[in-house]
Amino acid sequence: MDLAHSLRLIAPEETLSIASLVLLLVAAWSGDKASRLISILAVAVLVGCMALVAPALCYGLSGPDVAAFGGQYRADAFAAFAKLLIYGSSAAALIIAPAFFDRLGQMRAEYPVLILLAALGMGMMASAGDLLTLYIGLELNSLASYVLAALLRNDGRSAESGLKYFVLGALASGILLFGVSLVYGFTGTTSFAGINAALSGNLAAGALFGIVFVLAGLAFKIAAVPFHMWTPDVYEGAPTPVTTFFATASKASALALLMRVSLEAFGSQADAWRQIVIFAAIASIVVGALGAIGQSNIKRLMAYSSINNVGFVLIGLAVATPQGAAAMLTYLVIYIAMSLGGFVAILMLKDEDGRPLEAIADLSGLSRTRPGLALALAMIMFSLAGIPPLFGFWGKFVVFQAAVQAGFVALAAIGIAASVIGAFYYIKIVKIMYFDEPVDTVRGRSDWAHTALLVITAVFMSPLGYLLTKWLDGLAQTAASVLFLAA
Amino acid sequence: MIHVFAFYLFAVLTIASGAVTILARNPVHSVLWLILAFFNAAGLMVLVGAEFIAMLLVIVYVGAVAVLFLFVVMMLDIDFAELRAGFVKNFPLGMLIAVVLLAEIVLGVGAYKAGAMHLGTPDGTAITAPGASNIAAIGQLMYGRYLFLFEASGLVLLVAMIGAIVLTHRQRSDSRGQNVAKQNARRPDEATINMKPEVGKGMTL
Fold first, then answer.
1. Cβ–Cβ below 8 Å for A146 and B119
2. Is A65 a member of any domain?
3. ipTM of the complex in this document
4. Per-residue DSSP letters for A132-155?
5. Where in the sequence is the domain holding A460, given as residue range(s)?
6. Which of A137, A147, A187 comes nearest B120 by C-beta?
7. Is the predicted pLDDT of residue A37 greater than 90, yes or no?
8. Structural domain tally of chain A?
């Protein structure tokens, strides 16, 4: 292992950490009035990091050449794919924030710094090749997330969401660490490749316990049933830009980590964890769909929608084939675009004084008062429900295709049947916007950054998105194939 | 011989002070017993040749953590009567948890004795040069093999610090901060006044 080579490979992490330290100093000296400048610089840094990781994906890098620090860190195509998603959605969370916080006078200079540090931890999760990297990346990301959730100190709901996230997150970390220690005890190594080799053959009962605990800890992070209880409360209480960050970047990094751990470290024992993942997938789809029906707050509704969507992604994981993994990545890209669009649309729901509106009842008759916004929201809802010809359908299609190809016809059938339940509440929103009497509460002016992001995501979700399928599938397959080299 | 004697001395004292930590009625005494347990554990560490961990135990746990505990315990206003009031009500629950923990221990020891459990063996990558002292070995791993993770842990601590400041620090109008420049610029003749008070008249400041 050559130190200089390793240091070259972790260039995105170095850039992010140095940038966050410098910006922290700027924040400390200039205070909150510099927050806009710091946000702009932070977005520039994230875009720069995207440029740094993109070559690894374009050239499909993998293997020992891109392993840094003795395999603790990988700068391969899969990590690059996940990092592009993570850095991109972190940048989006920075762009949408000022308009929300400025009205409250709560735009803190630390917000961009914390987002950068969280993105750094998420990048480490996506690049993890060792249980230690996994844990430290996860903690770096989680710790920053707890603070971000509680950022609005004067708002009781924000404090509640931060506290709930912290307590339950700490519990999940404990479960994960317990699993990690069992896996280490029974395999004698913390590196994913070593664990994969040590687990092949007969599986010791203790190692199985370890796998179950690790997966349970990670299921909390991706908000899969039965570890989803925190999601609606945290998504509702956290400031909306932070919720957007949780629903996009956090989700992408946790799913990338779950894929790495299950397919790289536990890949030789796919039969052992498959039933767990299948249960979590079906339960998430059903609970996400049923739980959303009774909601009256649109942020809670989006939280249940995210639980529901995680279930579909997990179907790809249960398949445990390169096609399944590629389908997961494709689904993830489309889901992130949809959920970003959804939350930006929620940010644009403001009353005359600019107060954010979150009740679904406020959407009544939106098509007559704000036709453009209503159209975008309707597209997002139809797309989340997976109704063709919108792009959301393509994500579900590739996941089910991978499941059927690998012989999991029953799993795919249950998934398709359950997605019909989910379609009910998405279409209910569309019905409220288009057929109910207008209440005309949404009157606030929209920020140009919000409008621009909403238009971009809406175009991506429209049938025009299908022009990208070939390119997107190619990249997803390149990235996913990296995970199956060891197996 | 002295080895065996020292081991049993430290071991018995560790277990005994650990037990008294739980049994002591006064929480302050509990913390003091805990400190004794730490000291004896450090003695055990010295016996097995891990002198660095022994020092760490004394400096970090006794010097910092236990003293912090002591402060917290002394600041808490604990009503002992109220503490004991819930005892009978929670007794069944406590017993249940104790039984579950006991069953787990018995199960674990039994499984280990049965010999079916085979634990993994270290892959040997973490071995350092023979003959190196404890500190040198730990340092080589931390700043060599685990350099990346060590630095990243530093960032985790930084985030914790930023978080604590972001969530608790607020600008208050009635707080008066220190102005070093103003203090340094102060001259003795501005700071002191020579007064000649007359007898029986008092004086104004």
1. no
2. no
3. 0.91
4. HHHHHHHHHHHHHHHHHHT--TT-
5. 271-486
6. A187
7. yes
8. 1
> Strands A73-74 and A67-68, how do they pair?
antiparallel
Domain membership of residue A103 (yes or no) is no
Q: What is the per-residue pLDDT across A350-387, written as a single tens digit (0 to 9) for each?
A: 888 888 888 888 888 888 888 899 999 999 999 998 88
H or E segment at B83? helix B80-85
* Six token digits for residue A372: 């453009």
Q: Which positions 102-161 of B are in contact with A (Cβ < 8 Å)?
A: 117-123, 125, 145-149, 151-153, 155-156, 158-160
Token pair 């975008």: residue: A376
For B79, the token pair is 């009503």
Q: CA of B24, closest CA in chain A: separation in Å?
A: 29
User: CA-CA distances (angstroms) from residue A8 to A3, A85, A215, A482, B145?
Assistant: 9, 21, 32, 20, 16
Residue A220 lies in a domain: no
Indicate the Cα dihedral angle A71, A220, A311, A130, nearest 10°.
Answer: 10
pTM of the model: 0.87
Q: Do B152 and A140 touch (CB under 8 A)?
A: yes
Which among B147, B155, B167 has the least Cβ separation from residue A147?
Answer: B167
User: A101 in a domain, yes or no?
Assistant: no
Among chain A residues, the shortest Cα distance to B149 is held by A133
Q: Which amino acid is at A239?
A: P
Yes or no: say if A453 and A340 are a contact pair by the CB < 8 Å rule. Answer: yes
Contact check, Cβ <8 Å, A113/B147: no
Q: What residues in A contact B122, CB-CB < 8 Å? A: 188-189
